[in-house]
Specification:
With 342 residues, this protein is α/β, with parallel strands linked by helices. It folds into three domains: 93 residues, Udp-n-acetylmuramoylalanyl-d-glutamate--2,6- Diaminopimelate Ligase, Chain: A, domain 1, CATH 3.40.1390; 215 residues, Hexapeptide repeat proteins (UDP N-Acetylglucosamine Acyltransferase, domain 1, 3 Solenoid); 26 residues. Strands 8-11-14-17-20-25-28-31-34-37-39-40 form a twelve-stranded mixed beta sheet. Strands 9-12-15-18-21-26-29-32-35-38 form a ten-stranded parallel beta sheet, with no helix packed on it. A nine-stranded parallel beta sheet has the order 10-13-16-19-24-27-30-33-36, with no helix packed on it. The chain is flat.
């Protein structure tokens, strides 16, 4: 798909400096630009590349003034970085704007879907499924009975959504994600043999939720596992049964959240964090990567370590920990002196 400089300026509410009919068909880094590519200049460290790039169109901020003659077309905007981000969204939307129903696949007679949907080959759409407008379901996707999927949501290839789950509008669920698998519920009998506890709840993804590749979100034992509006989950995150994650919280890869834990809004959770079950984490919490959280945390803190505690206290303690061999050596020297004096 090709775009001209004037079309790009209209999308970004910018101004063309150069040839408005210049065409591009791909995106690139400014240092790797080639003929027919579009790039941007936002960081002053990369300014020198604008004079050597082979890109056809460069998005720049309004305050950019070239010091040499440029053999390319500029699109001037208020903020080059945010404008390029907007363009990436537009490009991604146009690239993934598939419409139609492929075959072979299975769609239950009791399922319904809205306008402008795409359902890829080898997908399975179960009984009483309701699919909104402009939903994109890529090949080899499984959608169980009674699932509801809101408008403008995209499910990439290989996603599995178990029965009764609810997916909001404008969600992105990446390949290999499993939503609504059984929670880890087992009860030992008198012989120590574990018996499975039926997991009859569901998972609710509210609007504007992103789920990374191979992430798993378990269904509740009773009630719902809830991922609230604007939450972003990275790849390979494990969310256990009956967990609630508050609005606009972000969780990095390989984090595991045990059952029935409640996480507040606007939290930032680093990679490989382990969070114990049945605890509450407040709003605006930052958890440093590889931390182990074993107890409830009040709002507005940064925590670190295993078991995790306040980051300022952690850093103070870590200074002493690094010096522990010297501290022990000094202590032993003092101990010898003390014994000699006695």
């Amino acid at each position: 798909m090709k775009f001209t400089a004037i079309q790009i300026s209209e999308v970004l509410n910018g101004e063309v400096v150069g040839d408005p009919t210049t065409e591009v068909h791909t995106l690139s880094k400014i240092e790797e630009g080639s003929l027919g590519s579009l790039t941007f200049l936002a960081n002053p460290k990369y300014t020198s590349h604008i004079y050597t790039t082979k890109a056809s169109i460069v998005i720049v901020s309004n305050d950019f003034v070239p010091k040499k003659k440029l053999d390319l077309t500029l699109v001037k905007v208020e903020n080059a970085y945010s404008a390029f981000t907007t363009l990436l969204e537009y490009y991604n939307l146009s690239k993934n704007n598939k419409i139609g129903i492929e075959s072979p696949l299975f769609i239950s007679d009791s399922a319904s879907y809205g306008k402008d949907v795409y359902i890829g080959a080898f997908s399975h759409i179960g009984d009483n499924v309701v699919i909104g407008d402009n939903v994109k379901i890529y090949p080899n996707t499984f959608i169980g009975d009674n699932v509801i999927i809101g408008s403008n949501t995209t499910l990439f290839s290989g996603v599995k959504i178990y029965f009764d789950c609810i997916i909001g509008t404008n969600c992105y669920v990446n390949s290999g994600a499993v939503i609504g698998a059984d929670g880890f519920g087992f009860s030992p009998n008198e012989n120590g043999v574990y018996k499975k506890i039926p997991q009859i709840g569901n998972v609710i993804l509210e609007d504007n939720v992103d789920v990374g590749a191979s992430t798993t979100i378990d269904r509740a034992t009773l009630g719902s596992t809830v991922i609230k509006k604007g939450v972003k989950l990275d790849n390979q995150v494990q969310v256990a049964h009956n967990v609630v994650i508050g609005e606009n919280t972000v969780v990095a890869a390989q984090t595991g959240i045990a059952g029935s834990t409640k996480i507040g809004a606007n939290c930032q959770i680093g990679g490989q964090v382990g969070i114990a079950g049945h605890i509450s984490i407040g709003d605006n919490i930052r958890i440093v990567g590889q931390s182990g959280v074993t107890k409830s945390i009040k709002s507005n803190q940064t925590i670190n370590g295993t078991p995790a505690f306040n980051n300022v206290d952690f850093n103070k303690s870590y200074v002493h920990f690094k010096n522990l061999p010297k501290i022990i050596k000094d202590f032993q020297s003092l101990e010898k002196i003390f014994k000699h004096d006695r």
